[in-house]
Specification:
single chain, mainly beta, 3-stranded antiparallel beta sheet, rod-shaped, Beta-barrel_TonB_sf, transmembrane beta strand, transport
Length: 69
């Protein structure tokens, strides 16, 4: 079931990594090699589905695109 404003054929998804943009260290190799974690990343994914009717055949087409910051 889709959202009343968006309909059943439009899907939006918002993803975030390290939402509060904190510095963290996921791993280290002793005191001389420290790996810093990823910074804030936000992405929006949008997909649209629509039908094209040609004579008696129906063709379902799905478009998907990703937007990253």
């Amino acid at each position: 079931m889709g959202h009343p404003w968006l309909g059943d054929n439009l899907h939006l998804q918002l993803n975030a990594k390290n939402l509060f943009d904190t510095t963290y260290y996921p791993s280290s190799g002793g005191s001389t090699r420290v790996v810093v974690g990823d910074p804030l990343e936000v992405s929006l994914q949008a997909s649209v589905k629509f039908l094209i009717s040609r004579r008696d055949n129906l063709l379902l087409i799905s478009l998907c695109d990703n937007f990253h910051t």
